[in-house]
Amino acid sequence: MATTGKTRDNGLFRALPLLTPAYAWLALAIFLPLSAMVYFSLLTSMSPDEQSSSLTLANYATFFSDPLYATLLLRSLKLGLLVTLICVAVGFPAAYVLAKIFRGRSREAIFLLVILPFWSNSLVRVFSWSMVLREGGILDTALNALLPFNVTFDLMYSYPAVVIGLVHSYLPYMVLTCYLSLQAIDNALIEAARSLGASRFTTLRRVVAPLALPGVLAGSALIFIPVVGSFMEPRILGGRGGTLYGTVIEDQFTAVYNWPLGAALSFILLAVVLAILLVAAPVLRKAA
């Protein structure tokens, strides 16, 4: 036992020169900006007109004194949950087909289509949806060309448009994480279940889904966390109706130059997301 512990320590000591640059960079890239934002969130003001600024907790108190912020945060959490559920419903079947049905060049072609959105700028992708969803846009024109009667299809500056844009942006994460989990499942387990008389649905529910659950959970975390704080899709596709917690934070930094309040609201969002993950951790650990 002592020899095993000593061997482990020696291996860690040898790997330390290789690990240090990466972990040092991660520490600087994460903790240094967070430390600066903590300091900003405690300032009374960052206006160049003021000669001095003192420390205060008033920025955090603003969140609790104005119910608008809590309302927008709750709306953002609901949006994150909705987008995550849609991505699971769409992404898991797509990943299953990609991992267990397609083979060879067909799989490569479909996989290329999945990762294709990453090849373009996210801002370009969002603006492309504005050309599709607006009145007189691509979808509206196509429907009027196919249908014998005129229709007006206009989803711009609406909540569904925001959901569509976010699902398009984050769906590949769900497909990729589920694909990795499904690819690791031995096909012999599926064949054994079928040979024992289980239907396709029963095999999917009792064998495939539990084994692929870690990929679903990983994809859900990768989607839910950034969607809650998203601001680009709600701003462009939602208009005034797309005002969410993330857009309010963006306004504090870019429009009204109230960095202390923006930093405080950001840390409150971070605390809420961490609290959700902490509460869900036992369930997620058991499921995984």
TrEMBL record:
It is a multi-pass membrane protein. The keyword RNA-binding does not apply. InterPro entries: MetI-like (IPR000515), MetI-like_sf (IPR035906). GO terms for cellular component: plasma membrane. Keywords: Cell membrane, Membrane, Transmembrane, Transmembrane helix, Transport. Its main location: membrane. It is found in: Cell membrane. The chain crosses the membrane at residues 22-43, 79-98, 110-132, 157-182, 203-225, 261-284. GO terms for biological process: transmembrane transport. PROSITE patterns: ABC_TM1. Residues 73-280 form the ABC transmembrane type-1 domain. Belongs to the binding-protein-dependent transport system permease family. CysTW subfamily. PANTHER family: INNER MEMBRANE ABC TRANSPORTER PERMEASE PROTEIN YDCU-RELATED (PTHR42929:SF1), INNER MEMBRANE ABC TRANSPORTER PERMEASE PROTEIN YDCU-RELATED-RELATED (PTHR42929). This is Spermidine/putrescine transport system permease protein. It comes from Aurantimonas endophytica. The lineage of its organism: Bacteria, Pseudomonadati, Pseudomonadota, Alphaproteobacteria, Hyphomicrobiales.
